[in-house]
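For concreteness, we quote verbatim a single protein encoded this way:
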Amino acid sequence: MRLGFALPQFGAAADRPEEAARFAREAERMGAAGLWVGDRLLAPVNPSVGYGGTDTVPPQFRSALDPFALLTVAAGATERVLLGTSVLNAPWYPPALLARSLTAIDRISGGRLLPGLGTGWSPEEYRAAGVPMGERGRRLDECLDALEELWSDGPAEYRGALWEVPESHVGLKPVQRPRPPIYLGAFAPAALRRVARRADGWLPAMVLPGRSDPGAVLAGPLAAIREEAARQGRDPAAVDVVLRINPGPSVPVREIADAVLSAEREAGVEHAFVDLMYLTEETDRALELADLLLEKTGAR
């Protein structure tokens, strides 16, 4: 099992950005496999859609550090650990700007970037970003096409219905060639089919305490992804998985570790990360919890 952790990005941690580098260095020293960021723009006062099936938005999302800046800090503070996004809301970003930011992080880190992309869930955030939410699926598909072009050799050009890149020289490329592996966050059937068709991996998420066994929750969608990948002529085993685990307040470390190990045992998931923001907003305590989880899951 490879186990990583979300960087301190939200809530009170956002007011202490100087501690992000220390968390990154210490987590790497302890044996963490990855450091991860999310993508929140704002927390609506009266959300039309709540977070994670609720009718509210967690108060931690009222303060959020920029994911690109935070990963850049982590890249400069570490040498080995994977740097991932779970997930960037790709429809918010013109592909040329997204490619520039991701390329810079991959270069600064020496090729350690794992870009995870998705479409988000908040209508208010889409309004603030100036992007029609009804176009989010098409914008993600076009973004993936445009990134392939921008990261290819030679002049880049892309012309879609929603995004356009005029024929241009884009000389700076990622260290990882032909491009960094792209993972997608998905649970809806159409989104799972997109993972099967064109992603290098799937980014599921799980909340604790949950209503059923983690392995059982993951096994069905993962089987559907791999069956569709085979129908598309892809090697099903080539579609990787990184599980995000969001423990609620006061969830014991043992329960989190059990969820990680259950996902490995029952669904074959060998890579996960834990977001500790609901358990603590103190960096030292977060590092203590990370150390315990690495020990109890045998991830180091």
Observations:
- The two ends are 8 Å apart (CA to CA).
- The CA atoms of residues 100 and 172 lie 8 Å apart.
- The chain has one domain: 2-297.
